[in-house]
Specification:
This protein is an alpha/beta fold. The chain is built from 10 helices and 12 strands. Strands 2-1-3-4-5-11 form a 6-stranded parallel β-sheet, with helices on both faces. A 4-stranded parallel β-sheet has the order 7-6-8-9, sandwiched between helices. It has a two-stranded antiparallel sheet with strand order 10-12. Helix 4 links the parallel strand 3 and strand 4. Helix 3 packs parallel to helix 4. The longest helix is centred in the N-terminal third of the chain and has 20 residues.
Length: 313
């Protein structure tokens, strides 16, 4: 485990009677709540920090949210300079701009936990926590095959062009191969409701018959459903999103035929990352390596297990 060296001034303070034990500072740097999933992540990050500060009095946490990569880099540099963090939990706003700055932090002896969006260089982080993106696509594809045993014509909305999105699509395509499901078109909706509304409008104008939609994300599914409703189309049997937005989980729970299922990619993975880092800072328990959270199919039978009414997502 890596630690920062204490300055002479800090050692002098620790020698005094006012402090009975060292305080280890863990920095948490995440994107701001610019869309639904990120809003849920922010909720779970703060909830985890509040809980863990009660459990571990020897730990202190500093949380910063950033609306762009430059702000995130600045936040991290400030954590090192002014708070003397011993560990950093970071979900990169974008991989490339954060790789060099996070590597520099690791070089100073700070434990690094990377979440979800990996860095562009391997081996920098001590711990990597993420969802199972190939599994997310596979579970989605398997559900489509099960739901459409005779095959059919579908359209697909992809996320932002990233490695994560590629892994999801590859898993999905492998799962539906040979099933009789035909992908009419596949376009990027950028994990954004408005973009997805526009993409789905285009699909609806091009194709008079569409059997189902793999939206691959709940924010995008909201946009897709809005476009379908606005067009008054009744040929589309269902829309499959993903990530576990509470509104979608509720619709699954209520037996909504247009939203019969969902696939998890929990924003609460940030809480898992923070908690594992806390364990690593306070005990000899080994936590380095990779922690991959599997994607689960949510249906009416288990939807209540995945419904978090207090979450913004």
């Amino acid at each position: 485990m890596k630690h920062l060296k204490l300055s002479a001034a800090a050692l002098a303070l620790l020698a005094g009677p006012a402090l009975a034990q060292d305080t280890t500072v863990i920095g948490v740097s995440i994107p701001a709540a610019t869309h639904g999933w990120a809003g849920g992540m922010n909720f779970h990050a703060q909830e985890a920090i509040d809980r863990l500060e009660e459990v571990y009095p020897e730990l202190d946490f500093v949380l910063a949210t950033a609306s762009d990569p430059a702000k995130q880099v600045s936040d991290i540099e400030d954590m090192v300079a002014t708070r003397g963090i011993s560990a950093l939990v970071v979900l990169p706003f974008e991989s490339e701009p954060l790789t060099g700055p996070v590597a520099a932090v690791a070089d100073q002896g700070v434990w690094v936990t990377v979440v979800d969006r990996g860095l562009s260089q391997e081996g920098i982080e001590d711990l990597y926590v993420a969802g199972d993106n190939p599994g997310f696509g596979r579970v989605s594809g398997e559900y489509m095959v099960d739901k459409m045993p005779d095959g059919g014509d579908i359209v697909v909305l992809r996320g932002i062009p990233t490695t994560i999105d590629n892994e999801r699509v590859e898993g999905f395509e492998a799962a539906i191969e040979g099933s009789g499901i035909n992908v009419l078109a596949m376009e990027h909706g950028n994990w954004n409701r408005d973009d997805s509304f526009t993409v789905m409008q285009d699909f609806l104008s091009k194709y008079p018959e569409i059997d189902a939609v793999w939206a691959s994300d709940d924010d995008m599914a909201v946009g897709v459903l809005g476009a379908i409703e606005a067009a008054g189309r009744d040929d589309i049997q269902f829309v499959l999103g993903g990530a576990g937005m509470k509104e979608m989980i509720q619709r699954v729970s209520e037996g909504d035929t247009m939203v019969p299922a969902d696939v998890t990619y929990p924003p609460s993975m940030i809480a898992t990352a923070i908690e594992l880092t806390a364990v690593g800072m306070t005990s000899p328990t080994p936590v380095s390596g990779q922690f991959i959270i599997g994607s689960v199919l949510v249906t009416q039978d288990n939807a209540d297990d995945f419904y978090f009414p207090d979450s913004p997502f």
